[in-house]
Amino acid sequence: MHFIDQARIAVKAGRGGDGIVAFRREKYVPAGGPSGGDGGRGGDVLLVADANLQTLLDFKYRRIFEAVDGRRGGPNRCTGASGDALRIKVPCGTEVRDARTGILLGDLTRPGEELLVAAAGRGGLGNAHYLSNRNRAPEKCTEGKEGEEWLLQLELKLLAEVGIIGLPNAGKSTLISVLSAARPKIADYPFTTLVPNLGVVRRPSGDGTVFADIPGLIAGAAQGAGLGHDFLRHIERTRLLVHLVDAASEAVLSDLQVVERELAAYGHGLERRPRLVVLNKIELLDPAELELLRAEVEGHCGRSVLAVSAATGSHLDSLLAAVWRELDIGAPRETEEPVMGEA
Ligand SMILES: Nc1nc2c(ncn2[C@@H]2O[C@H](COP(=O)(O)OP(=O)(O)OP(=O)(O)O)[C@@H](O)[C@H]2O)c(=O)[nH]1
Ligand SMILES: [Mg+2]
Fold this sequence. Notes:
This protein is α/β, with parallel strands linked by helices. The protein has helices at about 170-180, 230-235, 250-265, 285-300, 315-325; strands spanning about 1-10, 45-50, 65, 85-90, 95-100, 105-110, 115-120, 150-160, 160-165, 195-200, 210-215, 240-245, 275-280, 305, 340. The protein has two domains: about 5-155, Spo0b-associated Gtp-binding Protein, Chain: A, CATH 2.70.210; about 160-330, Rossmann fold, CATH 3.40.50.300. The strands form three sheets. The chain has a seven-stranded mixed sheet, with helices on both faces. Strands 3-1-8-5-6 form a five-stranded mixed sheet, with no helix packed on it. A three-stranded mixed sheet has the order 4-2-7, with no helix packed on it.
């Protein structure tokens, strides 16, 4: 499952340095020839595909990219220094368009692949270039050219890495809405969510990870019951499942098993997909009750179980820390700010 992440950025290549007018001044050479050097070339702007990026999140904060200008020429025919190229990292799979015309400029697919998006201006010529038999002392030089300037539209198909699954009403949509800027419909009845919602959650490295809120699964989903098959298919390509269980349900263990059975019945390796089991709505239980329930569920799962409240926001930091650990993404910062996302 994917959705489209978009960003619009302005890029400007460096201007070429100006050429200069100068004459040789040496002892015993009364009329030194022209020696004005050329300006250096400006810096190009390139996009580079980087395998460590997953989203265009960074471009929400920084939208203008300018490469440095070339330096002016010097005396003694010295050419000015060229500006360094500016390389902007984008995720693999980014499509680049001219924002004004929509014309596709390129598609960065392989890590390390580069695309020149704004060519630098050439340096101007110094007067040394204009020496001729007719003019032994030219006063002429030219200015550097402006670098190209473009408005670019970046587009990336995002793939959900984390799927939030569970029975209808477990609070999946509520969870994605507090972790990301996605704003799915939330309601106190089953099958509120009919199509998956995606949200981007800021991760410790600074980039984002895409979470998908999947419509509720029920018994028989693998055979097509409820919203069935379609949605199991959507989570096939996720790397991690967050199995959300309503802790206030009458029958937490059997709720858990219904979903586990559907994953197993669907096959395609879903039952072996790394999974976090998370009790939700824990503010409805008193602490002693919760600990008993948690111990019971841990006994069933044979592993530790997280407990959160999507509604009050409690323990969501531990949930995210566990998600990053499972995905093998570096240690989380103190606070996780939720950021953009789109349904
Ligand atoms: N008390 C409490 N209620 C919650 C919590 N999280 C979600 N809810 C409520 O549970 C109900 C269902 O929430 P949703 O987020 O729509 O549940 P869902 O899992 O997306 O449901 P479907 O889309 O139908 O599968 C809503 O009334 C939420 O307000 C929580 O932590 N505590
Ligand atoms: Mg929902």
